[in-house]
Amino acid sequence: MTVTDAPAWPQCGHLGTGERCRGRRVGSYTACLAHLDSAERAVHLASLAPGADLDHRGTPFTQSLLDELLAPLRDPGSGRARVGEASFDGVRFTGDAELEGIDFDGFCSFASAVFGGGVYVREVHAGGDFRLGAARVAGDVWLDDTEVGGDAWFYEARIEGTLRFCVHEVGHNAMFKGMTCGDAYFSGVRVRGVASFDGAVIDGEASFDGAFFQEGADFAEIRIAGRACFDGARFRRGRACFDGADIGGDMPFAEAHFETEATFDGASIGGDLSFSGARLEADVGFRRAVFRRTARIGPLVCPGTVDFSDAVFEAAVTLEAAAGEVRCRRTRWASTAALRLRNAEVDLSDAVLEFPVTVAGRPRPFFSPEGEKIAEPWLTCAPVRVTSVQGVDAAYLVLADVDLTGCLFVEAVHLDQLRLEGRCLLSSPPVGLRWMSRRTLAEEHHWRATTYGGGWTPAPPHVETHGPAVLAPVYRQLRKALEDGRNEPGAADFYYGEMEMRRHDTTASRGERTLLRLYWALSGYGLRAARALAWLVLAMTATVLAMMLWGLPQADPDPVSSGTVDGRRLTLTTRKPAPLNPEGPYTSRLSTARFEKSARVVINSVVFRASGQDLTTTGTYVEMAARLVEPALLGLAILAVRNRVKR
After folding, report:
1. How far apart are the first and last CA of the chain?
2. Of these four, 27, 430, 434, 439, which has the most CB atoms within 10 Å of its CB?
3. Which residues, at least 6 apart from 17, have a Cβ–Cβ distance to it below 8 Å?
4. What is the number of helices (H) and of strands (E) in the chain?
């Protein structure tokens, strides 16, 4: 109601400085309580008894007039006043207003009232609502040792000083939407209904430590210039909503208890978020939140999801959390960050990293500042599992002691600069003779599950399956990342994966794929020493048999010499007859002597030396082939061993 509006009650006929008094007429009189003459006022006050209703809307008040009004309503023994329903809407109060020792059977309303000083309410019990909506208070508002049976209504109140709402209990809802004040203290208050601070402005600090919000708390769009303390606060049902809140300082939730979901979507937080010893039984959301000067968040223990999707961290931050899931989709870090996590599944899809960000699995539980172990009653001891780095520029990403068995790497860039520290687990192929043990990517599992079926892990719902042409560059970049970190044995598995994808890539030429198949079959791309040695032993065995059966002559030929005597000069010409092919049954050729000679030929061929043994034509060609193939197989075996042990 504006000053130009006619009041909705019988208006006082008193004319002040050219303006008619807006106070409500008292009974059959033509004036309000403030403008009754002394005799009329005395008659009216004498008619009052404890429990009477009071209706003095729009009336000018002073503290002395208020005391005079309440005097006939007080019990002489206890000194407490008892009022039925009290309507003081639109009153103009000069100086401070004090209400002490009053029991209101119904509501007490000061809606749209104007106070020239402060409002001090002590030891007051309101059976109904307590209303200060749209009031203007030039000083502080204190409610001490007070109980409100109905709603506490401070909608759009303007308080220039401090609000101290130390009310034991609010029976229904507490409405502070659009309120403005200096500092605000709600320590220990219990609100049985919904508490709403939507759009409130607190120009100083705010304290809600020990508050109990039974049916939900709405702090959407609240602005607190300083620190906002929620230590020991309890949120039972409904939702703890801080969406769009603007907090200038720290926001501690030490020992707080969230039995319901908490959301900070779109909030702007200027300081640290401490959850030391807090109990969270549902999800916590920080979607689109902006952390301006936040240096630390946590330790946060949550059995559900902690969601930082689309959040922005403008300063260096340390995040400590033990949770079921931590989402950082499209999160932007404008400074360094360290995520120290326990148990959680971490999704980093499309995150933007402008400075180094470390995601590390923490093996030890978190501890409070007092050195006490923080309990994790809903969580297991599972390792931290990174589920996706898709769309991430990995140049600034460090993963340490995390499980990457289900991690999606496709679409990430600069994977060659990714740092994998500590023990980072990757999945293995299915157990069986066909598949050799190595570290594989989840995307390879997804592709092979569509090709080979059993044993390989299929892609989860809504996850695209990529073919070998896409996976080969991913393996190549990860291999380089490990090689740059001097982890050559670890890089060997990624090299194997790269070659496997190239071998199965149908877009490659047939000749290239044939060559890769041969390389794979002979030595597992130079990484399977046992395979190369097996082929070497097989080749040597075949060469020995070929030599024994066809390569060695029937018998070692003896030299034949012929000479001519010419005077005192003697000239001798020696001819060596050609070796004869062996004859007779094959069993007669498999003798010990022939085996010894054949083994000598083969061993010399392995080390790329000529044996000097007389051979048949067939044996000569067999030896030539052996001197080409067997040293290569030996070299592949040595290369495979080196790739597994070099540093």
Report:
1. 82
2. 439
3. none
4. 10, 48
Which contiguous run of DSSP H or E holds residue 341?
A: strand 337-342
Tell the burial category of 584 from Cβ atoms under 10 Å away from its Cβ (0-12, 13-18, 19+).
exposed
Per-residue tokens: 482:
């490990």
CB burial readout 545-554, b (16+ within 10 A) else e = bbbbbbbbbe
Which tokens sit at 89? 């809407």
Check: CB of residue 224 under 8 Å from CB of residue 206.
yes
Tokens of 19: 């303006």
What count of residues does the chain have?
647
pLDDT of residue 134: 95
Percent above pLDDT 90 for the chain: 58
- List the Cα angle 503/507/510 in 5-degree steps: 60
Within 13 Å of residue 615, how many CA atoms lie on the same side as its CB?
25
Per-run averaged pLDDT (10 residues), the chain, 647 residues:
68 80 90 92 92 94 94 90 94 94 95 95 95 95 94 95 94 95 95 95 96 94 96 92 95 93 95 91 95 92 94 95 94 96 94 95 86 82 91 94 93 93 87 72 90 83 90 92 81 86 87 85 74 73 68 58 58 57 61 64 57 62 66 68 64
Please answer whether residues 143 and 167 qualify as being in contact, where contact means their C-beta atoms are separated by less than 8 angstroms.
Answer: yes
d(CA 471, CA 492): 16
622 phi and psi angles, rounded to 5 deg? -65, -40
- Please identify which residue in the block is written with the tokens 């020995």: 544
Alpha carbons 138 and 280: distance in angstroms, whole number: 40
Residue 344's pLDDT is: 92
How is the chain split into domains, by residue range? 1-146, 272-425, 442-508, 529-561+579-645
Which residues are CB-neighbours of 605 under 8 A, at least 6 positions away? 543, 611, 623, 626, 627, 630, 631
- Rg (alpha carbons) of the chain, rounded to whole number: 45
Dihedral, 413, 419, 423, 428 alpha carbons, nearest 10: 30
Residue 602 CB: number of other CB atoms within 10 A? 25
- Written as one string, the DSSP assignment of 561-607 is EEEEEETTEEEEEEE-PPPPPP-S-HHHH--HHHHHHHHHHHHHHHT
Nearest to 245 by CA among 283, 274, 302, 202: 202
- The single residue listed with the structure tokens 């003081």 is 88
